[in-house]
Amino acid sequence: MSATLTWRIAILTQQFLPFGFLRHLPLPIHCFSTSKTMVAQQSVSILGPMSEANSSILSPECIDFVAHLARCFAPRRDQLLARRKAKQQEYDNGGAPKFLEDTRHIRESDWQVAPLPKDLLDRRVEITGPVDRKMVINALNSGALVYMADFEDSTAPTWNGTLDGQINLRDAIKGNMTFKDPKSGKTYALKDKHAVLMVRPRGWHLPENHFIVDGRPIPGSIFDFGVYFFNNAKALLAKGSGPYFYLPKMESHLEARLWNHVFVTAQHMLGIPQGSVKATVLIETLPAAFEMDEILYELRQHSAGLNCGRWDYIFSYIKTLRTHADCVMPDRGVVTMTQPFMLAYSQLVIKTCHRRGVHAMGGMAAQIPIKTSKEANDAAMEKVKADKLREVKDGHDGTWVAHPALVTIALDIFNQHMKEANQISKQRPDVRASEQALLAAPQGPRTEATLRTNCLVGVQYLEAWLGGLGCVPLYNLMEDAATAEICRTQVWQWIHHEAKLDNGQILTAASFHNIMAEEMQKLKQEVGEKRFTSGNFTEAAELFERMSTADELGDFLTLPAYERLSSKTAKAPSKL
Ligand SMILES: CC(=O)SCCNC(=O)CCNC(=O)[C@H](O)C(C)(C)COP(=O)(O)OP(=O)(O)OC[C@H]1O[C@@H](n2cnc3c(N)ncnc32)[C@H](O)[C@@H]1OP(=O)(O)O
Ligand SMILES: O=CC(=O)O
Ligand SMILES: [Mg+2]
Asked: Which residues contact 228 (CB under 8 A, 6 or more apart)?
């Protein structure tokens, strides 16, 4: 029997497994074929520069592969994005996410995800970060057990930066990776023993404007996944590892099903065993918190658990409940993991994952080392320690750090409190995260000081992003796309609901414009006139201000920002 036929039968059989009616959206039949005629290269245009290095990663075969995945799955992705909008309408009309009646049997029946590969059993400390060459080497050498190479929250996806990232990961997998920093002259080399590599592609919402199939930009998620998978999956398996991923910003189990279909097709096309892919889903949207079991179930052949993407989760809480006047957030600084709704969500992640035999990963403390004051640094590190201690005691099987200097701090705490490779066997039947608990509005003050900080952080982050930098230290905290989203949605929410601030002032668009003008003036002084005028501050401030005062809350800050970022490079088609 041919491989294609065997696989077709496998897929068809899967549709009649228990809960088969959930699989009412089979793969398009042309996805079963890997015939070159289905992916004629002439209908693929690449709008970014194709240097020799870029061509080495985007070979004609890789282009065919990615285009085929896009043809198979972009239409369904479009439907799922439209579904998000329809759901949001329900929430805007007073509804809220809830546990699904249709999938109760999945939540209530006993099943487990497929066994995990050996190199993913112990994930007690994972470092995350952007994919430039120095960072990749530093992260892999950092002593963390896993490095999550990030094309999402900490990356501004310029064409060259995205492809450089893919080249860096390919070279890291080959093993002989070096780098000489032109600024410092320092040289870097990958150690023999280094962290296990996981890759986070962009979320379903972002397009890749430089890769056009049949006249349309393809989803950035398919581009990042496809290029990485095509170039590295076999090499990773040959080394005893595998193609491992983090999947961001999903809002339903139907989106997880789509990823599962992408994995099944990709593995089939390269002829590698089904189940080779492993993926950890970030639970970082409010709707997804109500579908944790279902998400694991959809990905059960490919799952490596769930993770608490706490920053996007806060952003999503604001976004989802945008019209609910009783859910207006307090200052972002007081929305910590001990707020009841955050605690309920993180504990439900642990309970759900352990019941299904898989890791429940913790999240990111935003503190980073402070070089200018020992006292301030000690206080910041204490916060990181407290956060990691709560995580390990609650039952998380590992955690995230943003910086190599935090690896040992997190390792010490997990080593002390987690003697085995993980604590998946530790069940949490005591956790009862009700709908009410997951939705409970956080309490705390709304201050003018936070409003001003939101303006400063939001604008400076966007300024960096428009310059191609996706993660920056600001006022001693790590700031990335998720934390910047909190800044601008918090401002929008406060204006929209005319929040009363601690100074007694009712916030309106007019008073916000005055505050923005004052803060931008201060910022100009802080960074200096020259840096201010040569940077992207004016553009960033205009975008931040427009999105904060729009009648409708925009879906993602990075969508309009990406149009600006890519307009500089997505121009004439490159010769293929
Ligand atoms: C909400 C979420 O999604 S969280 C996940 C996304 N966010 C992240 O991954 C955060 C990643 N972290 C970072 O990008 C950085 O740590 C920043 C931007 C916050 C701070 O960066 P810097 O100001 O360069 O830090 P600093 O100067 O202290 O760095 C010291 C060294 O550590 C390296 N380093 C810092 N962070 C990382 C990292 N995450 N991975 C690898 N190396 C790192 C630097 O490259 C530098 O190396 P060098 O000494 O060889 O030159
Ligand atoms: O991706 C992580 C988050 O906190 O957001
Ligand atoms: Mg996130």
From this structure: 166, 169, 199, 201, 243
pTM: 0.94
Spacing, Cα 246 to ligand 3 middle (Å): 10
* Protein residue closest via CA to atom 2 of ligand 1: 153
Q: Quick check: is 194 in a domain?
A: yes
Q: Within 13 A of 166's CA, how many CA atoms are on the CB side?
A: 26
If asked whether residues 460 and 396 sit together in one domain, one would say no
- 54 domain residue, yes or no: yes
List pLDDT tens digits, range 423-480.
999 999 999 999 999 999 999 999 999 999 999 999 999 999 999 999 999 999 999 9
Residues, CB within 5 angstroms of ligand 3 (ion):
153, 284, 309, 312, 482
- Which residue of 133, 134, 135 sits with most ligand 1 atoms within 8 Å of its CB, as the best mutation to test the pocket? 135
pLDDT of residue 29: 52
Distance 153 CA to ligand 3 centre (A): 6
Q: Which regions in the chain score pLDDT beneath 50?
A: 1-26, 33-41
Residue 312 CA: which ligand 1 atom is closest?
1
**Residue 575, in any domain of the structure:** no
Q: Which atom of ligand 2 is nearest to the CA of 313?
A: 5
In ligand 1, which atom is closest to the CA atom of 310?
Answer: 1
The residues with which 400 forms a beta bridge, in sequence order, are: 126, 364
Please tell me which residue in 133, 200, 202, 446 is annotated as part of the active site: 200
Using the Cα atoms of residue 74, residue 77, residue 79 and residue 85 in order, give the sign of their dihedral: negative
Residues 6+ apart with CB under 8 A from 231: 57, 62, 166, 170
| Maximum C-alpha span of the chain | 75
Nearest atom within ligand 2 for CA of residue 480: 5
Of the residues 403, 472, 475, 478, which should be mutated to test ligand 1's pocket, given the most ligand atoms within 8 Å of the CB?
403
What's the 141 CA to ligand 1 centre distance in angstroms? Answer: 13
Which structural domain, as residue segments, surrounds residue 518?
445-567
5 within a domain of the structure (yes/no):
no
Could you tell me which of 407, 402, 544 has the C-alpha nearest to residue 478? 402
d(CA 49, CA 47): 7
What's the structural domain count of the chain? 2
Q: Is 480 a catalytic residue?
A: yes
Q: Which of 106, 173, 327, 75 is nearest to 83 (CA)?
A: 75
Which residues, 6 or more positions from 554, have their beta carbon under 8 angstroms from its beta carbon? 547, 560
Residue 37: predicted pLDDT? 38
